[in-house]
Design brief:
With 153 residues, the protein is of the alpha+beta class. The protein is built from 7 helices and 5 strands. 28% of the residues are buried.
């Protein structure tokens, strides 16, 4: 499914913001954080085949399939970088080449150990855990806001 077909699965308020984003982009007008957010959510859903679960004033909860399992993830709203990182990790699957190499060399059921240094809110840890269910993952994050948000994954 392409991005256009995912517009209809967005909640009404996000669809309205997305329409404004497109029009402002076409006419070269300044785009608000909320409009940028609607665009990145659409891109995440289209790439990952996910869905919006809840929209709150401070966070958005999405259901995203990862290795055959629907995972509910939380992302703080703009100006946080959570949605951009979520798009990189679970939308574009930028770590998939690493997963593919490890799966060729290791048994996916093996109890491997992974250190996620600079874990942010833990999307990479989540992606690795979904692909290596028996992995022991140590996520290190010094920013207290990011660390606190990890518990919501």
């Amino acid at each position: 499914m392409n991005e256009i077909s995912y517009v209809k699965v967005l909640p009404r308020d996000l669809r309205m913001l997305l329409r404004r984003y497109v029009l402002k982009k076409l006419f070269g007008l300044k785009i608000s954080y909320a409009e940028k957010e609607a665009n990145i959510i659409l891109r995440i859903l289209a790439k990952s085949h996910g869905s919006v679960k809840e929209v709150h004033s401070d966070e958005i909860r999405l259901s995203i399939p990862v290795s055959g399992v629907n995972v509910i993830v939380s992302a703080r709203r703009y100006p946080s970088s959570d949605l951009g990182i979520l798009f990189q990790v679970l939308g574009k699957k930028e770590y998939q080449p690493v997963i593919d190499i490890l799966k060729k060399k290791l048994n996916p059921n093996a109890e491997i150990r992974i250190i996620d240094a600079g874990a942010n809110v833990g999307y990479v840890s989540l992606f690795f855990k979904a692909n290596f269910v028996n992995a022991k993952i140590l996520s290190i994050e010094v920013d207290s806001d990011n660390f606190t948000n990890q518990a919501k994954l």
